[in-house]
């Protein structure tokens, strides 16, 4: 069975006033529209547009009793300002953290709570805008030291360099983060931010441009100094970033399709007015320097399959061309999201055919093992991972 689904964009302050509206071909509300959630997550479940008024969790319970809950959450994400620097726990860490906070009697809405559920939250984002900027992982320390050398020799910069001279790179970064985020850095953050604002370099032009934009958006936030340690990633349309458990990251600007495990567990590390639990963040964080975590798709015949190393989800991008319809094997339940043109989707019954314009979506039950698509456009399919992937 196929059914059209929809939702109202989340109005987080960092959201764009134009990107989601522009994709959907409607006038802007002039308010931030940050994320459009497509799934059954209780934080913002999708509506099923079949005339019954049901939300997707209720629809799945009735129509998909073998799969009453989706293992993933699909989103359109539209950032006009930096999101918080953050990391997510592994499954084992989430289980322990959720149980511990339950034992402490912390309600799910308590501001002191870090774990809203017992699941991990790996996430994948594919750029839809021509450019999508992000921070992801810690930069090679030789490169970070070279960047720091441009910032002068003030006491705060010397202290930061001192942390990064540790014999073990991961330990040095961990110590630097604790110093920057615990409140002990004093005026060092302002000194570092001021030096970034004055620095110029052809070699680090992208990094300095991004850091200056972050400093302007989040003045005085110690996360600006944390960002100085991170890889800057500028995705082009169709390129993907995959963030595993423990990888520090922040999305900065642009429109993308995001797919993640169905969780709301976030440990923040700056660029936010919300609580930063430094000890808990460091307990889940992998501080080993590494290259940006890009994920290359498996490409064949106009189909890109982004297959991460977790069983929760796979994301498929399909370029649909005029001509004969094409068949796509799937492992449901599936959520399909159109992002360009006009694409028609049907399953076993032609009566179930749904035509999608950009920004529109449908859900297909797991007995629809093949989806047939036609028209001209571009569509993304979110589905559980599995052997076929």
From TrEMBL:
Q: Which residues form the active site?
A: 268
| Residue ranges of every copy of the Phosphomannose isomerase type I catalytic domain listed in the record | 3-140
What Gene Ontology cellular component terms go with this record? cytosol
Q: Which InterPro entries match?
A: Man6P_Isoase-1, Mannose-6-P_Isomerase, Pmannose_isomerase-type1_CS, PMI_typeI_cat, RmlC-like_jellyroll, RmlC_Cupin_sf
* EC category name: isomerase
Molecular function (GO) terms for this protein are: mannose-6-phosphate isomerase activity; zinc ion binding
Reaction(s) this enzyme catalyzes, per UniProt: D-mannose 6-phosphate = D-fructose 6-phosphate
The free-text cofactor remark is:
Binds 1 zinc ion per subunit.
Name its GO BP terms in alphabetical order: carbohydrate metabolic process; GDP-mannose biosynthetic process
Q: Which residues bind Zn(2+)?
A: 86, 88, 123, 249
What NCBIfam families does the database record attribute to this sequence?
manA
The text of the family note is: Belongs to the mannose-6-phosphate isomerase type 1 family.
What name appears for this protein in its UniProt entry?
mannose-6-phosphate isomerase
User: Can you name the source organism?
Assistant: Microbacterium aurantiacum
User: What does the organism's lineage look like at the top?
Assistant: Bacteria, Bacillati, Actinomycetota, Actinomycetes, Micrococcales
């Amino acid at each position: 069975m196929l059914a059209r689904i929809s939702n109202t964009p989340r109005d987080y302050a960092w959201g764009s006033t134009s990107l989601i509206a522009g994709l959907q071909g409607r006038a802007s509300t002039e308010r931030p529209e940050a994320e459009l959630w497509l799934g059954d997550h209780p934080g913002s479940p999708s509506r099923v547009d079949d005339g019954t008024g049901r939300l997707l969790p209720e629809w799945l319970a009735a129509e998909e009793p073998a799969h009453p809950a989706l293992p993933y959450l699909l989103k359109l994400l539209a950032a006009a300002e930096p999101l918080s620097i953050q990391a997510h726990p592994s499954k084992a860490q989430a289980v322990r953290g959720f149980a511990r906070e339950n034992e402490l009697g912390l309600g799910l809405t308590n501001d002191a709570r870090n774990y809203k559920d017992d699941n991990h939250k790996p996430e994948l984002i594919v750029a839809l805008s021509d450019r999508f900027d992000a921070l992801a992982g810690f930069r090679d320390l030789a490169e970070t030291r070279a960047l720091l050398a441009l910032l002068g020799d003030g006491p705060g910069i010397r202290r930061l360099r001192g942390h990064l001279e540790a014999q073990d790179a991961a330990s040095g970064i961990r110590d630097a983060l604790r110093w920057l985020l615990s409140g002990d850095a004093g005026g060092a953050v302002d000194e570092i931010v001021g030096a970034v604002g004055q620095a110029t370099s052809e070699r680090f032009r992208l990094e300095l441009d991004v850091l200056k934009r972050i400093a302007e958006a989040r003045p005085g936030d110690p996360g600006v100094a944390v960002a100085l340690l991170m890889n800057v990633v500028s995705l082009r349309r169709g390129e993907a970033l995959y963030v595993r458990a423990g990888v520090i990251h922040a999305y900065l600007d642009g429109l993308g399709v995001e797919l993640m495990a169905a969780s709301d567990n976030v440990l923040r590390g700056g660029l936010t007015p919300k609580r930063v639990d430094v000890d808990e963040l460091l307990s889940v964080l992998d501080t080993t320097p590494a290259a940006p975590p890009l994920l290359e798709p498996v490409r064949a015949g106009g189909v890109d399959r982004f297959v991460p190393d977790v069983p929760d989800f796979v994301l498929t991008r399909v370029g649909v061309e005029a001509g004969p319809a094409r068949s796509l094997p799937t492992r449901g339940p599936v959520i399909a999201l159109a992002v360009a043109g006009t694409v028609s989707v049907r399953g076993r019954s032609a009566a179930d055919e749904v035509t999608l314009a950009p920004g529109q979506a449908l859900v297909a039950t797991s007995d629809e093992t093949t989806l047939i698509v036609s028209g001209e456009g571009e569509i993304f399919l979110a589905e559980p991972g599995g052997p076929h992937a």
